TrEMBL record:
<dbReference type="GO" id="GO:0005737">
    <property type="term" value="C:cytoplasm"/>
</dbReference>
<dbReference type="InterPro" id="IPR045865">
    <property type="entry name" value="ACT-like_dom_sf"/>
</dbReference>
<feature type="domain" description="Prephenate dehydratase">
    <location>
        <begin position="2"/>
        <end position="180"/>
    </location>
</feature>
<comment type="pathway">
    <text>Amino-acid biosynthesis; L-phenylalanine biosynthesis; phenylpyruvate from prephenate: step 1/1.</text>
</comment>
<keyword id="KW-0584">Phenylalanine biosynthesis</keyword>
<dbReference type="Pfam" id="PF00800">
    <property type="entry name" value="PDT"/>
</dbReference>
<keyword id="KW-0456">Lyase</keyword>
<protein>
    <recommendedName>
        <fullName>Prephenate dehydratase</fullName>
        <ecNumber>4.2.1.51</ecNumber>
    </recommendedName>
</protein>
<feature type="domain" description="ACT">
    <location>
        <begin position="193"/>
        <end position="270"/>
    </location>
</feature>
<dbReference type="GO" id="GO:0009094">
    <property type="term" value="P:L-phenylalanine biosynthetic process"/>
</dbReference>
<keyword id="KW-0028">Amino-acid biosynthesis</keyword>
<keyword id="KW-0057">Aromatic amino acid biosynthesis</keyword>
<dbReference type="InterPro" id="IPR001086">
    <property type="entry name" value="Preph_deHydtase"/>
</dbReference>
<dbReference type="GO" id="GO:0004664">
    <property type="term" value="F:prephenate dehydratase activity"/>
</dbReference>
<dbReference type="InterPro" id="IPR002912">
    <property type="entry name" value="ACT_dom"/>
</dbReference>
Length: 271
C-alpha cells in the first residue's frame, strides 16, 4: 500500500505516519506541502495519506480542510492523535541569546506564539518543520533557530537550545487518514458532514443545528470555513461522535437537503 505524508524526513507527519501505518506492506511517499500530500491521493499516485487536521493550540489546520473539501472524491477513513513537544533547534555553537529569528511551518509558529512574543524574535514560515531545519543546517547560521521535534534535531545533528517551548505542555495534533473510499462495513464512532448552505440567510447555522439536535446527534467538532465565493458565505464541518447508523446519516442528509443545503459525507471512522 502506498501512503503519502508531509516531508522531508523528520516532520511530525512522518512520526504520525510511521506510528499509524506500523506494518510491513507500506511504501511511504513524502511531499513538500500539505496540499501536495492530499492531491497525491486525489490523483491516484498513492492510496492513502495522513495529514494534520487540528491542534490543541492552533485549532483547525485550514490548509488541510480547504484542500480536502476542494477534492470531490476524497474521504476520511481514520484518525490518529500525536503528542507534539516543540523545541528550538540550532547549529552547533549557537547561543540562545543570539537567536533573532525562528523558522517553522505556520501551525508550529502559532503553537509557540507566547514564546516568540516573549523573546521578541521574528518568525519565518516554511512548508514544514523539517524543511525549516534543513535550510538552517545548510545555511550554517548562528542567529536563527528552527522549531521542531527532538527526532528532527537528532536526524540533522542540530542542538536543542530550548525545550518544550509550545504554549501548552499538553499539546497534541489530531491527524486524519484520507483515501478515495468510504468506510462502510462495521461500526464507526465518528461521521464527518460538510454542509454548504444554498444561500446565506439569518439563522442558517441554527437551523442546521436544530436538525442535528432533533436527531440526537452528538457533535465533537464544528468548524466553519469561507466558501471563497462571497464575503460572509460559509460552509460548516460537523463531526458526529455517537456511532451514527447509516440510516441516521441518511436521515440527517435528506432533511438538510430538503432545507436546501448541499450535504457531503466526508467519511466515517474510528480513532
Ligand atoms: O511540519 C511538520 O513537522 C508537520 O508535520 C506539520 C504539522 C502541522 O502543520 O500541524 C503537523 C503536526 C504538528 O502540529 C506540527 C506541524
Amino acid at each position: 500500500m502506498k501512503v503519502a505524508y508531509l516531508g522531508p524526513k523528520g516532520t511530525f507527519s512522518e512520526e504520525a505516519a510511521k506510528r499509524y501505518f506500523n506494518h510491513d506492506e507500506v511504501e511511504f511517499f513524502m511531499y513538500d506541502t500539505i496540499p501536495d500530500v492530499i492531491d497525491a491521493v486525489g490523483e491516484g499516485r498513492v492510496e492513502k495519506a495522513i495529514v494534520p487536521l487540528e491542534n490543541t493550540i492552533e485549532g483547525t489546520i485550514n490548509m488541510t480542510i480547504d484542500t480536502l473539501v476542494s477534492c470531490e472524491g476524497l474521504m476520511i477513513e481514520g484518525e490518529f492523535t500525536l503528542p507534539v513537544a516543540l523545541h528550538l533547534l540550532a547549529n552547533k555553537e549557537c547561543k540562545l541569546s543570539s537567536v533573532h529569528e525562528v523558522w517553522s511551518i505556520s501551525p508550529i509558529l502559532t503553537q509557540c506564539r507566547k514564546y516568540i512574543r516573549q523573546r521578541s524574535v521574528k518568525s519565518l514560515q516554511f512548508d514544514s518543520s523539517a524543511s525549516a531545519a534543513q535550510t538552517l543546517k545548510s545555511s550554517g547560521r548562528l542567529d536563527v533557530a528552527a522549531i521542531g521535534s527532538e527526532s528532527l534535531a537528532s536526524l540533522l545533528n542540530l542542538d536543542i537550545i530550548d525545550r518544550n517551548i509550545q504554549d501548552n505542555p499538553n499539546n497534541q495534533t489530531r491527524f486524519i487518514i484520507i483515501s478515495e473510499h468510504m468506510n462502510t462495513d462495521g461500526d464507526f464512532k465518528k461521521t464527518m458532514f460538510v454542509i454548504t448552505p444554498d444561500q446565506e440567510q439569518p439563522g442558517v447555522l441554527s437551523a442546521i443545528l436544530n436538525v442535528v439536535t432533533a436527531l440526537n446527534i452528538n457533535l465533537s467538532w464544528i468548524e466553519s470555513r469561507p466558501t471563497a465565493h462571497q464575503l460572509g458565505c460559509y460552509r460548516f464541518f460537523l463531526e458526529a461522535n455517537n456511532n451514527c447508523s447509516e440510516m441516521m446519516i441518511h436521515k440527517a442528509k435528506t432533511i438538510l437537503e430538503t432545507l436546501g443545503h448541499h450535504v457531503r459525507i466526508l467519511g466515517r471512522y474510528n480513532s
